[in-house]
Write a structure and sequence with these properties.
Blueprint (H helix, E strand, L loop, with lengths): L31 E5 L3 E4 H14 L5 E4 L5 E5 L12 E9 L4 E6 L3 H12 L6 E5 L1
Antiparallel strand pairs: 1-6, 1-7, 2-5, 3-6, 4-5
Helix pairs in contact: 1-2
């Protein structure tokens, strides 16, 4: 599962995801990509599940680039705990994704294979996505 080796701060504010993506908004590496259409937090497990689905369908041919990384710690208090007594412990790491951001890029396979593989990967993500090509 993806998570940072070290962070500057142990816990982070929830924050808001405003506006459209300016970075990672165009294809840089591959010929095909998966673009986010909604703002949301994507957790490390979801990124890994999508990546596995992608590479399994492509039968490990071609190349895959992951353009997002979960670097925001998300804390959660245990169940049945009363209010107060500070913030909970870090449960997982997430990535804030803005609409227009490219999540995965693929190269070295045909367009049909890339389209189906990226569709299978998008099924593992909590947001609407769109297949794009160069």
């Amino acid at each position: 599962m993806l998570q940072p080796v070290r962070t500057k701060f142990r816990k982070a504010f929830k924050g808001r995801i405003n506006g459209k993506a300016t970075r990672a908004a165009v294809l840089n590496y591959g010929a095909y990509g998966l673009k986010a259409l909604e703002p949301d937090r994507i957790i490390g497990k979801q990124i890994e599940a999508a990546r596995v689905a992608l590479t399994r369908y492509m039968k490990r041919t071609g190349r895959v680039w992951t353009r997002i990384f979960p670097n925001i710690p998300v804390s959660k208090k245990p169940t049945e705990v009363r209010m107060g007594k500070g913030k909970g412990n870090v449960e997982y790491y997430a990535c804030r994704v803005k609409p227009g951001r490219i999540i995965f890029e693929v190269d070295g396979v045909t367009e049909e294979v890339a389209k189906i593989a990226l569709y299978k990967a998008s099924a593992k993500l909590p947001i609407k996505t769109k297949f794009i090509k160069r």
